[in-house]
Amino acid sequence: MDASYVNAFVQGAQRVFASVCQETPTVGKIFVKTNPYTTSPVTVSVSIIGAFEGDVVYNMQEATGCAIVSRMMMGMPVPTLQDDMAKSALSELANIVSGNVATIFAGKEIVVDIKPPQLRFDATAADFPVAEKVAKIVCVPLVFADGSIFEVDVMIP
């Protein structure tokens, strides 16, 4: 996988977090996940189509998701992600990040589009068939000041 592809996802996510959450998370140690693919309790996946095809999966603990959604809602307490507003906000965050990534690619004359995000709780490897088709899944942990982690798993064959 081309490192510039992974960098586009990092750059897109950091831009959105800086704008939406008023914090730019730092990049943790990037690593490769192997199959069978494992996820965190909360995932939002977005399929990418166009010049290349693949998926990006945003992984987090529920507490991390609640904190992010709370920041998106100007500090309103978000005790659970099971509420429709929280689900919608988290899905929209993935949509905004992925849209930013598509814009970054367009600036490099690589035309891609994104499909609507899929929010899952306690997902399994079977929920991500693309994971079995890629040679490696690059995981970029984005670390917030409070230590919480938002993982960006890039799956591009």
Structure description:
It is built from three helices and eight strands. With 157 residues, it is an alpha+beta fold. Strands 1, 2, 3, 4, 5, 6, 7 and 8 form an eight-stranded antiparallel β-sheet that branches. β3 (42-50) and β4 form a beta hairpin. α1 crosses α3 (84-107). The longest helix is centred in the middle third of the chain and has 24 residues, at 84-107. The mean pLDDT is 94.
Encode the helix/strand succession as letters. Answer: HEEEEHHEEEE
Rounded mean pLDDT is: 94
Per DSSP E runs of 2 or more residues, the count of β-strands stands at 8
Roughly how many Å is the radius of gyration? 14 Å
Overall SS class:
alpha+beta
Give start-end ranges of low-pLDDT stretches. Answer: none
